[in-house]
TrEMBL record, chain A:
Pfam families, per the entry: Ras
Gene Ontology biological-process entries: protein transport
GO MF terms held by the record: GTP binding; GTPase activity
Keywords: GTP-binding, Lipoprotein, Nucleotide-binding, Prenylation, Protein transport, Transport
Family indicated by similarity: Belongs to the small GTPase superfamily. Rab family.
Annotated protein name in UniProt: Ras-related protein RABH1d
SUPFAM superfamilies: P-loop containing nucleoside triphosphate hydrolases (SSF52540)
InterPro entries, A to Z: P-loop_NTPase (IPR027417), Rab (IPR050227), Small_GTP-bd (IPR005225), Small_GTPase (IPR001806)
Keyword Metal-binding annotated: no
Source superkingdom: Eukaryota
Protein transport keyword on record: yes
TrEMBL record, chain B:
Family, as annotated: Belongs to the BUB2 family.
PANTHER family with a match to the protein in the record: MITOTIC CHECK POINT PROTEIN BUB2, TBC1 DOMAIN FAMILY MEMBER GTPASE-ACTIVATING PROTEIN
Protein name: Putative mitotic check point protein BUB2
Organism: Porphyridium purpureum (Red alga)
Pfam families in the cross-refs: RabGAP-TBC
Gene3D superfamilies (alphabetical): putative rabgap domain of human tbc1 domain family member 14 like domains, Ypt/Rab-GAP domain of gyp1p, domain 3
Residue ranges of domain Rab-GAP TBC in the record: 137-320
Subcellular location, record wording: Cytoplasm, Cytoskeleton
Molecular functions per Gene Ontology: GTPase activator activity
Membrane is among the record's keywords: no
GO CC annotation terms, alphabetical: cytoskeleton
């Protein structure tokens, strides 16, 4: 994994993020919202793994994110460890409307710990918060579980676009070498700035562009 | 073996062709294919080069010649296929034609299959080949009939399918439902021909036919089933799908073992076909199990449109599922310059979604380049390609 020197400009640091979680919890939706700012009510199930990459322009440096969007399907599960093994960040997603998917996050977290021990950034994500009526898992429960496993936590709605950028800011801030950056200290502030800067100041924009 | 029983049903009928059909069992076909492979691949490649040279002028002449050509090819196909496949999966057709005595064929089954193969490789099927319910071919499309011939399927036991459907939802019905409502849902050409219910019936029937134990259905099977339903009535699609899974890609379905063999073979092929790109990918630790999982594991069925998929499957069914690996290779090699010039620094120059969109190549372009690429592979590599989808990896198969 690329360490980052303090002197800018540094070469592109590359990080691998693996997205895990049961089928249909919204992994692909979160990533698509982040990458293309789009949402679709009818995504096809991911087949095996979907590989994407994205350059994120942060305040003081640029990072390259490799996103590995895995399939929640059971059939793929035995292959997951090999993908976790190579990743520096694991994002475990559940659906706040589906309690079973929340319960299963324990298994996903354990799977990550088995492969990577503590040498990994783990984030628990409760998705689909827009479905307030049908909610089966409360914020408090999500938060408690994250604390129990000593990992980060956030709730999102890929559909509403809620907190999706914040999720990636949070991850970026936690990446190795980021401890001293402005990012890490002011995550919330930057998320606000992000919205303001998107249209007005393209160079400082937190919007990233994928050159693929 | 299970399919032995399935095909024993054929023997029940009388008449010349039914006896002959026993030689058409997929296993016999596969044996024949294994015997013929080296030869046919080389010959196929030669034919393809001729074809490629003609491709440009062909397009210009296409409009003028298309009516003629279509008639010519259809006539030849009819000669090869009928009367064996005269009886389609349609019940009324079956009843009407079931007792028609079969005319004796002048060609042996092997010769007929070979002619079909050549036809598919050198001419492709006519544009109208996807039409279902035509006067000439009946319920099943012409392409569907050709596929059934490659799969060694003659008369479809319609009642068998109907009985299976009558058993209702299988133990995997829920999993199937999750997949079928999400299968090619945005492809209008597909959804106008195939409904989630049709997919669901065929897949549940498949589970019942295999004893209805939970876990018979594995996710993404719906995608492999889709091309068959796109071209055939349900009973035919059911039979074809079953034979396809059991005889053509068992290693892709029971587990992903064959798919992982395919990734290693893919890398070997890439190394031969485009050393620079291969090195580039190695440098970025970019592996096919990252960017090409969906295209390779579905034999390109996940790359729209379905009308292109079926053209690629013509060749896969004629010569072997391994062509799926070569088709993916063709797409990537074709984009080589673009991928190499990516200015994105130490990152990924390729993402799955672009590959899933075909990287700007239609079926014709993919086929043309694939036929060229395959000529570069030596016999050992070809042999392992041929076997990887149907046999567990052998110790001697280890990379050269
Ligand atoms: N209401 C709502 N629906 C969502 C949200 N995110 C995803 N969905 C829907 O949930 C379904 C599944 O979403 P996907 O993103 O495909 O789920 P996935 O986790 O990638 O699923 P697999 O690829 O099968 O593992 C889709 O129909 C989405 O439209 C959300 O935030 N709110
Ligand atoms: Mg997905």
């Amino acid at each position: 994994m690329a360490g980052v020197s303090s002197s800018a400009p540094t070469p592109l640091a590359k990080y691998k993020l693996v997205f895990l979680g049961d089928q249909s919890v919204g992994k692909t939706s979160i990533i698509t919202r982040f990458m293309y700012d789009k949402f679709d009510n009818n995504y096809q199930a991911t087949i095996g793994i979907d590989f994407l990459s994205k350059t994120m322009y942060l305040e003081d440096r640029t990072v390259r994110l490799q996103l590995w969007d895995t399939a929640g399907q059971e059939r793929f599960r035995s292959l997951i460890p090999s993908y976790i093994r190579d990743s520096s960040v694991a994002v475990v997603v559940y659906d706040v409307v589906n309690r079973a998917s929340f319960i299963n996050t324990t298994k996903w977290i354990e799977e990550v710990r088995n492969e990577r021990g503590n040498d990994v950034i783990l984030v628990l994500v409760g998705n689909k918060t827009d479905q307030t009526e049908k909610r089966q898992v409360s914020v408090e429960e999500g938060d408690a579980k994250a604390k129990e496993h000593d990992i980060m936590f956030i709730e999102t709605s890929a559909k509403a676009g809620f907190n999706v950028k914040a999720l990636f800011r949070k991850i970026a801030a936690a990446l190795p070498g980021m401890e001293n950056s402005a990012m890490a200290r002011d995550t919330d502030l930057i998320d606000v700035k992000l919205n303001a800067s998107a249209s007005t100041n393209p160079t400082a924009s937190q919007e990233s562009s994928c050159g693929c | 073996m299970r399919h032995a029983a399935t095909f024993a049903r054929w023997a029940r009928g009388s008449g010349d062709w039914r006896a002959e059909a026993r030689h058409w069992t997929p296993c016999a076909l596969l044996r024949a294919a294994a015997r013929l492979t080296d030869f046919s691949v080389r010959e196929l490649a030669r034919a393809a080069v001729r074809l490629g040279a003609r491709a440009d002028s062909r397009r210009r002449r296409a409009r003028r010649a298309s009516v003629f050509r279509r008639m010519e090819i259809e006539d030849e196909l009819l000669q090869i296929l009928l009367p064996a496949d005269r009886v389609s999966g349609d019940l009324s057709d079956a009843q009407r034609d079931g007792n028609t005595p079969a005319e004796p064929f002048s060609l042996s089954p092997e010769e007929r299959i070979d002619r079909l193969r050549k036809l598919v490789a050198t001419h492709g099927l006519p544009h109208s080949a996807n039409e279902m319910g035509t006067e000439k071919f009946g319920m099943c499309s012409l392409r569907g009939i050709v596929w059934k011939a490659f799969l060694g399927i003659g008369v479809i036991p319609v009642h068998n399918y109907m009985n299976l459907v009558a058993q209702g939802p299988s133990a995997d019905a829920e999993k199937i439902g999750n997949d079928t409502i999400r299968t090619f849902i945005k492809n209008v050409d597909f959804t106008s021909r195939v409904s989630p219910d049709m997919l669901s019936r065929v897949l549940n029937a498949y589970c019942h036919a295999r004893g209805n134990t939970k876990g018979t259905y594995v996710q993404s099977m719906s995608i492999l089933c889709a091309p068959f339903l796109y071209l055939m009535p349900e009973p035919d699609a059911f039979e074809s799908f079953s034979v396809f899974l059991e005889c053509h890609v068992p290693e892709y379905v029971n587990n992903y073992r064959g798919v992982f063999s395919a990734f290693r073979l893919f890398e070997e092929c890439l190394r031969v076909a485009d050393r620079q790109l291969y090195d580039h990918f190695v440098g970025y630790q970019l592996k096919p199990e990252l960017y090409a999982f969906s295209t390779i594991s579905t034999l390109n069925a996940c790359v729209p449109p379905m009308s292109d998929t079926v053209k690629l499957w013509d060749v896969q069914l004629a010569f072997g599922a391994y062509w799926g690996v070569i088709f993916t290779l063709a797409r990537i090699v074709n984009s080589s310059a673009l991928l190499l010039s990516s200015k994105e620094g130490p990152g990924a120059p390729l993402i799955t979604r672009e590959l899933e969109q075909g990287l700007g190549m239609n079926a014709e372009a993919v086929l043309k380049l694939s036929f060229e690429l395959v000529q570069q592979f030596d016999a050992h590599l070809l042999q392992r390609l041929v076997k990887h989808a149907i046999q567990p990896p052998q110790p001697e198969d280890a990379g050269s």
